[in-house]
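Wed. Picked up where I left off yesterday with Leucine zipper transcription factor-like protein 1. The coffee machine is broken again, so keeping this brief.
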Amino acid sequence: ERSLITLTQEDKRMVRGLLATKSQIARVSKPDSPPKPEKEKTLAQVADDRQILKQALEKEAKMEQQQADNAEAVRKYTQEKRKLQRKLEKLDKQLADDETEPLPEA
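Structure written out below (tokens, as returned):
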């Protein structure tokens, strides 16, 4: 003997939600491409990676040192330039003062 079950609107909504969730899970669990096997690095590869990293860090340190040296050279150049400009202004002023004074009569 069969019995009839009447589903309410809420029951129908829950069934639709369950079916939608199942189909989403099925779609997500089927990857488009097969998973790539994890590649384990050999000790030699790890050593090579470390060597490359060490070289990169050394190059970066050299570049930073060069930048610091260049900044120091620019600072010294600017300082010397200011010093010479002040000296030149002083000499210009002295020359201007000398030109305004009358020459002694001989």
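Quick read: The radius of gyration is 42 Å.
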